[in-house]
Amino acid sequence: MINDRAPAYGLPVLSLVVRKTQLSRWENGHVTPGPDVRRLFRELYGKTNEQLGFPTEAPANPLADELTNRLVVARRVDAETVELFRQQVDGVCHADRRFGSTARLQQLRSHIEEVERHLTHSLLSKHRQPLATILTEASTLAGWNALDSGSIDEAWRYYSRARSAALESGSASRHAHAVAEQAYVLLEVGDAGNALELLKEAVDIAGIHTPRLLRAWLNAALGEAHAIAGDRDSALRAFDRADPLLPVDARHPDLPFIFLGGRHLDRWRGNALVHLGEPEAISQLTAVLDFAERHPSFVRANAGLLVDLALAHAAAGERDAAMSYAQQARRIIQQVGSIRLRRRLERLSFPLHAA
Hints:
Blueprint: H1 2-5, H2 16-27, H3 35-45, H4 49-52, H5 62-75, H6 79-99, H7 102-120, H8 125-148, H9 152-169, H10 172-188, H11 192-206, H12 212-228, H13 232-245, H14 264-276, H15 281-294, H16 299-315, H17 319-336, H18 339-345
Helix pairs in contact: 6-7, 6-8, 7-8, 8-9, 8-10, 9-10, 10-11, 10-12, 11-12, 12-13, 12-14, 13-14, 14-15, 14-16, 15-16, 16-17, 17-18
Protein name: Tetratricopeptide repeat protein
Organism: Saccharothrix coeruleofusca
InterPro entries: TPR-like_helical_dom_sf
């Protein structure tokens, strides 16, 4: 009977002589049966450990079992899994440029939760670093989507998570980018002073050994922050530093989340000129329009360009042009659901002398 049920409990099938000897040793107390044997005997005789004379077993520990299971699952994360996670983030990034933030944010929440769960239960640095890299990129993207959707506190939390993950990833580039992105939350709430401090720290983190594309992006971000703070000279100098740093193709395989190709840097400078109230903002931005029309996939960036043109023409007292660009911008903003751009457009006003 014991041999019939032994395989179900992972026990060997033994000869009759060996089995009788084993039973004798158990009955005489010379050997205590192991957990699997005790389970088998409980089933055969329908009795408890105490009734069978076995020692009382320690109660099961569900928390230990859960941790063990999670550690086992985390060990299954290999290079192929990491690449799959990366492709998911890239896919959300491309969809975000085309369709806006609202739907993307929910996707990223689930993705971040899954990656973070695997990272938490990965033991070795060689396994943790690739996951930390993915978590950094997903969290900065989620932070931007939350900010664009008007969720300030959520954006701040995602950027803080990105900064922590970037440190574990060992990438100075991703760390600097996450720090700089978080400065945009401060700019959104009107705290240009602290935003500038954070951006300067990001520049220091990046140093001179990170890709030129990142350093160009950081200087442009610094230029925008100076412009919002009203510091014209510092803003223009920052953009002047960014321009020669920009590589020819303005792309880098390690920085898939940064886009400065074509006329994107020119558009960014035009945005800064709008913040500064500079008349040449109109010509700077108008020169970018043709590029925007030829690259319709950058939907939100193009909506931002139209908002800037509306604000620039309004500042110049050119009501018809301002209202035309504002109307075009509103249509796209409604499609992509950008609360951030809608708030900027709400600042549209005309100088008193234009009346």
